[in-house]
Amino acid sequence: MKFKKLMSVIAASAMCAGMFAGCASTDMAHNGSGDASSTYNIGVLQYADHPSLDNCLEGFKQGLDSEGINYELDAQSAKNDDATNTQIAQQFAAQRMDLVCGIATPSAQACYNACYDAGIPVVFNAVSDPVAANLAESETQAMDGITGVSDKLPVDAQLELIREMLPDAQKIGILYTTSEANSVSTLEDYKAKAGDYGFEIVERGITNAADLPQAVDILVSEVDCITNMTDNTVVNNLPVLIEKATAAGIPVFGSEEEQVGNGCVASAGIDYIELGRKAGVIAARVLNGEDISTIPYETMTESKITINPDAASVVGIEIPQSITDRAEVKTAPSEES
To answer: CB-hemisphere CA count at 13 Å for 144?
Structure first.
């Protein structure tokens, strides 16, 4: 967080070799004396277990491998639990990891809070709005000790896709967790842009997974369709959302291809393996000696359309050929061999 800068000034006189010289194991990463033969200890904290975040982890490893980094990886999941999230982050700090990666906004925040004073660099992944989450100064200026890759959703592309598939739709429902900064930020983006496509956004906030079933029951009575964001609680409970929405004849649009493969009708989203790979490459740059505080975060700009014809058919949608011609097809899990 931004107040950490004051803490770094107070602590500077106690550090023997600059801000990030916290211990011998991290000197190479921070001071540019990396050795190609070194094996680095890397902690990865993933906030929840669902396919898009799993893909981030896979891509992160691919990125490290592509840069020839030798590493031992300790990858752990917080299971969508904030207390566990904080505990694992503090564990990584106590273990003096050479670098820590936080996948999803809550984990990135927990890792930065735990690791900053230990001099451990943090690379975030799947953070929709790093500035709003206090993980970056701006789009062009990193904060001390942290950078990464943003999964800011291509909201315009998603709204265009929904309009093309549902030409008569008026109201789009969005379910989100009120405590997730990435969800709040993306919701505001949807509300600001929806009118340009002739839509009205109907929102329902939840505080935890237990609130989701009732919120869905209310939402499906008010909207023509639902679009997902990258909200961890919602995505982690996607089967419940899809089951209830489908029973009401309401199509659910995903925010990336894995959600489509798991029952959403379509998405104009990003590739989360590629997202993770970019984070892995950034981590390699840091481990090889580049100053993390001079590396602004990156944002995925490419999007792709993914469709699930089976899921669309169940809710009475015939996907236009104009979309099919440029889309990747994902088959519903129940139909896979």
So the answer is: 19
Q: Sorting pLDDT into bands at 50, 70 and 90, what band is 182? A: confident
- CA 24 vs CA 15, 28, 31, 58, 72: distances in Å: 12, 8, 11, 28, 17
CA distance readout (Å), 269 to 116, 139, 149, 259, 302: 32, 21, 15, 10, 8
Around Cβ 189, how many Cβ atoms within 10 Å? 16
- pLDDT tens-digit map of 120-132: 999 999 999 999 9
Rounded CA-CA distance 40/94 in Å is 16
- Spatial separation of the C-alpha atoms in residues 93 and 119, rounded to whole Å: 9
Those residues whose C-beta lies under 8 Å from the C-beta of residue 49, and which sit 6 or more positions away, are 77, 79, 80, 236
Q: What separation in angstroms does the CA of 118 have from each of 88, 94, 95, 159?
A: 15, 8, 10, 43
The mean predicted confidence, pLDDT, of the chain is: 89
- For residues 138 and 135, give the distance between their C-alpha atoms in angstroms, rounded to a whole number: 9
pTM for the whole structure: 0.80
- β-pairing, 171-177 vs 70-77, is unpaired
Query: What DSSP designation does 116 have?
Result: T
Strand partners, 102: 45, 124
Q: To 10 degrees, what angle do helices 272-287 and 24-31 make? A: 100
Strand ranges inside the chain, DSSP E: 39-46, 70-77, 99-103, 122-125, 146-150, 171-177, 200-206, 225-227, 252-253, 266-269, 298-299, 304-307, 328-329
Quick check: helix, strand or coil at residue 299? strand
Q: What's the pLDDT at 36?
A: 58
Contact 261, 205 (CB under 8 A): no
In the predicted model, what is the mean pLDDT of residues 42-46? 98
